[in-house]
Amino acid sequence: MANKVNLNADIGEGFGAYDIGNDAELMEVIRSASIACGFHAGDPLTMRRLVAHAARSGVSVGAHPGFNDLWGFGRRRITMPPEDLEYLIAYQIGALQAMARYEDLSVTHLKPHGALNNMAADDEKLALAIGRAIQATDAKIIYVALAGSAMHSAANALGLRLAREGFADRQYDDDGNLASRSIPGTVIKDPAVAREQAIRMVRDGEVVSRHGKVIPVEVETLCVHGDEATGVAVAREVRRGLEEAGIAVLPLPELID
Amino acid sequence: MANKVNLNADIGEGFGAYDIGNDAELMEVIRSASIACGFHAGDPLTMRRLVAHAARSGVSVGAHPGFNDLWGFGRRRITMPPEDLEYLIAYQIGALQAMARYEDLSVTHLKPHGALNNMAADDEKLALAIGRAIQATDAKIIYVALAGSAMHSAANALGLRLAREGFADRQYDDDGNLASRSIPGTVIKDPAVAREQAIRMVRDGEVVSRHGKVIPVEVETLCVHGDEATGVAVAREVRRGLEEAGIAVLPLPELID
Amino acid sequence: MANKVNLNADIGEGFGAYDIGNDAELMEVIRSASIACGFHAGDPLTMRRLVAHAARSGVSVGAHPGFNDLWGFGRRRITMPPEDLEYLIAYQIGALQAMARYEDLSVTHLKPHGALNNMAADDEKLALAIGRAIQATDAKIIYVALAGSAMHSAANALGLRLAREGFADRQYDDDGNLASRSIPGTVIKDPAVAREQAIRMVRDGEVVSRHGKVIPVEVETLCVHGDEATGVAVAREVRRGLEEAGIAVLPLPELID
Amino acid sequence: MANKVNLNADIGEGFGAYDIGNDAELMEVIRSASIACGFHAGDPLTMRRLVAHAARSGVSVGAHPGFNDLWGFGRRRITMPPEDLEYLIAYQIGALQAMARYEDLSVTHLKPHGALNNMAADDEKLALAIGRAIQATDAKIIYVALAGSAMHSAANALGLRLAREGFADRQYDDDGNLASRSIPGTVIKDPAVAREQAIRMVRDGEVVSRHGKVIPVEVETLCVHGDEATGVAVAREVRRGLEEAGIAVLPLPELID
Description:
Chain A is α/β, with parallel strands linked by helices. Chain A has helices at 23-26, 44-57, 82-101, 114-122, 124-138, 150-158, 191-204, 231-244, 252-255; strands spanning 4-11, 32-36, 60-64, 107-110, 142-145, 162-167, 206-208, 214-216, 221-223, 248-249. Chain A binds chain C through residues 68-69, 71-72, 76-80, 115, and chain C through 68-69, 71-72, 76-80, 115.
């Protein structure tokens, strides 16, 4: 259906002595980076370095905020009132905006991390709180969300720009949700398979679930990962495949009205 | 010499369950608030609340960044390369800017906290690092610094706006430095004494040291404190005294070119 | 029914620049202190100081572990696998044991804090995880728990010593649970009322709910609080009342077999 | 001179999502592990896992405490009063003791990390503070220190057991100090060279500096590192070399009276 798409990854999730995720290589493949903001991972130095890399490579910069939980890597659910969450997010956006200003860049999208992403996908109050943080800090920021999630609705309710996200390197369940990483085989490690899935999602608006069911999908951005050994090779093949299929792979701000 | 001055205080140094410093009362007396940014104290919710209070009360908003050290309240010296420090400061400025945007306010000054303030007063590289963080995030931010300190020089070297700070409620040594808090009597608790010192500093450009020596001072801003039981009463009397002496007490952006 | 009981309070929930809860005064009233362990509140210096105070005052020392969440004061629910929780608790117990050793004291009880306490009261897996942390660090530690909670069952299942806890300064609902603090009047601020409730709980094994229903209760320890302005006065009157009623108020290790 | 020595490494310096240092392989080579205690690195789960590994592999367990500084990996100097430091160390020892108790192990040595190690090597007050933390938590704990450092003196002054440490995989300066890592070539990556240096240090009580000077050394323990790509191979060859030279490689408690 579409002849253009964005390619994004979570970036900057190491800090200090810790380096994970093959940031440097991924940054040459993706067009939009969701940069950790120092709460679940990342630190000011890492954020600054990756913003500079983004500027050099023509990658657009997004915030990847998470819970304040280094030990849990933002994967632990933490309950708090929506208002508290809103300011937690605004704080992280602002911190990244400061780093982006070093390169005359803006923070142009936001994608919640880990447990926060899972909770906000289901809970409208949390999804709206994140949306209000966007409105307050920069209303042009694109809200990256799973199609059909509470974040999708929240973006619409608040009149925010939205990019619906699909996954090039992960299998889907029949209901259109991502299959759990804990099920063997659900992380796609064969570059050719990921390439095919990515093209089909964008060009045909559908994905084949791990049980063989064809599911309609609408995506403006495809996520790839750097934390698997195979991740960068998969990401490269996804990008090459998309471009060879005549699909333009663009930074998010060039894609979303 | 001068017929106008600013009155500032460190604000928002509690968080969560912790409330210190009589923020609410002080905010009605001062004209500029140096708000803790979540590293040595403060949290997003507290920052947000105080920015709202500042907007209501016509108080200008400044960043009060510190080391990342809740247990030490930012009073422990932490050594790091100037570049690391620069981004640590930029991060905190950005976070507060996000909160300020909720009220259509800008962050208009910066005053380092505690051990960072002490280190940057003596160390030109750190003072310049803080200055570069200001330049990168908003070059109009006023650098609040002790006259004659390395921060004073750094502000000049970088062409930044500067506000030289004096203390209304603290005694001075003969060399023009603040006398240590650990010496009994150096924290001025008598409102009348603080009032007199404040007026003399602004009107006459001088302060009398705790040994009786008259020292020339140049100040654009006077600091008061809320953490002593007597602090708010002292601050109120300082403001009343200044105004009764015909000295306008203005927010920093109205005072500094 | 009983002629003896323990009186406990949460202690050491400030740290660094932050002082809350009237620790010094409460320590002269209670017989057992549940000391924060540096995760939701407290720090090594505060722990050390309160252990010394406990030694001087004949107060027994217990661990008051919480989630690793200073900003949320341990009041935010954080989900994690039971195994992770177990080691989080063992870590905190061990840290407090080190402090207790300075005074040749042992950590003799454990009471979870805030959201952790609420979660473990309902969730048997979490309650057992806490119990296993007790077993591993010192199997003689008394598990303080609401009667009938999952922690009560877990203590029994693991063969741990148990102290069932009631509240002298809080109203109960008809179902025997504590009434929410958010309902006006549920925090008992009148010393005489708290005194009467405490005596009746211990002597008669019953409490009158806020709607007037008489509920059977079994308690080995009564909790009082220092964070209300009235807290210390209430606690003092509770202790005086119990003793005047002929009820011995003992440290937990002298009370629980 | 000696026919026995210990081989130690810093272990458990990842946490959560972060894995560094090749812990699993190093644990099969060394005889004593200095385990990070959650302040500069590590977390309760990692500590627990490595204590279990130590028990399986006959490796003795030591504390590797550091400053409370995850972002700086404990490599930033933080100034605090000796008393504060003492309790910071005691806290970490206690936390690790709790984990060790799961395996019926004791914490049998202590080696400060990073900036703390550097500061305590020069500053007697800090070195004594660490020693007092050892005395309070378990006076049998062996203080691992550079020969001739303030920690060496502190251990003697307090009557603590001491293990003087040398480095198998690092070059020395002519004055007997370690050459800075920032100088190319000072990290020994050739297993044969490290092996030779290790044997000569133990057997002959001397090391050849990077400028060719023969320096007398006395060591009870040799440190190896896992953070270089070559680290494990170097460590393996050091151990093999020592044993082939007839030098017994023992856990610290079997070596130090």
